[in-house]
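Lab manual, section 2.4: Encoding a predicted structure.

Procedure: take the sequence of the chain (175 residues), apply the prediction step described in section 2.3, and record the output as structure tokens. A sample record is shown.
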Amino acid sequence: MNSLRKAKIEESEKILNFYQNIVYSIEGTQFKPKWSKYYPNLEFIKSSIEKQELYVYKKDSDIIGCVVLNNRFDPEYDNIDWIVEAKPEEIVIIHTFAVTSDLAGKGIGKEIFRQIKNNALKNNQKTIRLDIIDGNIGAQKVFEKFGFKYIDTVEIFHDIVGLEKFHLYEHILEK
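Recorded output:
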């Protein structure tokens, strides 16, 4: 069985190529994260690896999935009526979750999420949260299938996209 593991700095270029392939393969689909050839970029990838927040999922020697996991969130999260009241260390936030388009619909994303969830439970975390940029219908459908509940829509400023509406979702962890 493949497992989700922390990325290594020597994988930075491969991870960048993975994300760049995602950017080109989702053009014209329901997946519109507003990524571009400028983001996710090598600086973001290396920084995420150094912080031990970037995870890869491989098949043989190929990276087929990536995700950044941490407990850092935008200040706008503080004003939200979340289902679960939790301290930052009890929360997992999902960022830049992607699976290679070649394997779309094959259960890879579901398996990656299952491993994220199991690791969070082992670490006594209470909830998993994420935000999805407005218009990224594909991601909304995927995460709703994973059991995420829509919470609210807020405007958040990110350097990459500017001020945009984001849909907030939460998945409650139960032992």
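Check your result against the sample. The first strand starts at residue 4 and ends at 6.
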